[in-house]
Write the structure tokens for this entry.
Amino acid sequence: QVQLVESGGGLVQAGGSLRLSCAASGRTFPRYALGWFRQAPGNEREFVAAISGSGGSTIYADSVKGRFTISRDIAKNTVYLQMNRLKSEDTAVYYCAVTDRVMTTRQEIYNYWGQGTQVTVSS
């Protein structure tokens, strides 16, 4: 089992920044890919960003490209999501997830999920 705990969410004004963290514990794969997803009220959960096991490759949803940056600290088993120039439409619960397969935007490939952290952007 892998446990994922997100933190760093909160209330921020539009144009501001937040950094989310996702700490993994328990059984950890040697080099697993991690992803961030989000779900706004009334919407389906959607892909935000993902990073490869080595940290050398990343992918982003078009809606966040250029504003969000995903990174990881392998030694700390932690992945981060730096969110800049936040918009009201970024308001959602943000989830991190782990897969023992290749980095992907597909939610069904991810094996373990965190409980989520709320991000609210006021306009």
